């Protein structure tokens, strides 16, 4: 039996507890604090770099990657020492997610992961094509024996379909083979170590290219030794000029070229994927909304009055250049100028929280931090 199936009960119980704890952490200040104050951040996202060795068709950085010379793509990024200082400010109870771009493009990434894993629970999101045997083995060494301990708890790998589909979406010939090879190494070294961690989740972006292959993904995850299949929505909000800098209220729904999918095909694909995942013992994670809301999103019918923000009271994002955000929509400060604590409950974020409680913005549609909350109208 694959290790992923053995770990299923760990993941299901941990995921449920994490969701409950996150909601409790968020809801108290959301409903009680009128000043925009939030409890200490629960989840830190560290964007190691915007550089990537793939050219994914749905990537928010695709134009920048194509137009910016490789020699210039890391200009202005935080140095190793600056990232170490950021990590040292993160509370020990928090979860640290390393993301990108492709975090393994940084030569110092393993050093940063090791440092963070010695003081907090860690997680990275990668395409796994650069996950060598030595790196995979070291990741397992950094993992706690059981979920929730200090160390490397979760590995997230982006796979968007079976081999041909994935390679087309990700823009790399044989990319599927390279990515799945990295996952298999993690799963095998984990099995040899007798550990439950790192739990491996495969993230698939629902999009036109893979719509008719979504139901195949539970088998793809099972065959590579993964534990979780995580579906996310494709969003084009980050394509907006001035995103993160302009007033969020200045954007209109018509400004966004939102993706469209056939409603019945999508509904059928989600239904069949659920059935296949259950049959294979793969935990299927969807956006925090019913399936019919996912269909509505891809039909351009999302009503943001039925949602609330699940990020601003929980997550702090640090961009590759040190700019901090509660979400990518609003700058909140810079780590070269302020501490994480000062940024988290500083005037920019408190003001933005208060505004967001009054209503979400058009670019919020499709965000992975949205929480379905009907009845707010």
How far is the N terminus from the C terminus? 48 Å
Helix content: 25-40%
Q: In order across it, which strands form the biggest sheet?
A: 7-6-5-4-3-2-1-9-10-11
Morphology = globular
Unreliable runs, pLDDT <50, ≥5 residues? 1-6
Q: What's the total number of strands?
A: 12
Rounded mean pLDDT score: 90
What portion of the residues fall into strands of 2 or more residues? 15-25%
Structural class: alpha/beta
- Sheet of most strands: 10 strands, mixed
Reading the helices and strands in chain order gives HHEHHEHEHEHHEHEHEHEEEEHHE
Radius of gyration: 20 Å
Continuous helix count: 13
Structure in words:
By secondary structure, the protein is of the alpha/beta class. The protein is built from 13 helices and 12 strands. The chain has helices at residues 3-6, 8-32, 62-67, 80-88, 109-117, 133-141, 163-170, 175-193, 217-224, 263-280, 291-297, 340-344, 347-357; strands at 43-47, 95-99, 121-126, 151-158, 199-206, 228-233, 283-285, 307-309, 315-318, 323-327, 330-334, 370-372. The strands form 2 sheets. It has a 10-stranded mixed β-sheet with strand order 7-6-5-4-3-2-1-9-10-11, sandwiched between helices. The protein has a two-stranded antiparallel ribbon with strand order 8-12. α10 (263-280) packs antiparallel against α11. The longest helix has 25 residues, at 8-32. The termini are far apart. Residues 1-6 have low confidence and may be disordered.
Give structural attributes.
12 strands, ten-stranded mixed β-sheet, alpha/beta, two-stranded antiparallel sheet, disordered N terminus, 377 residues, globular
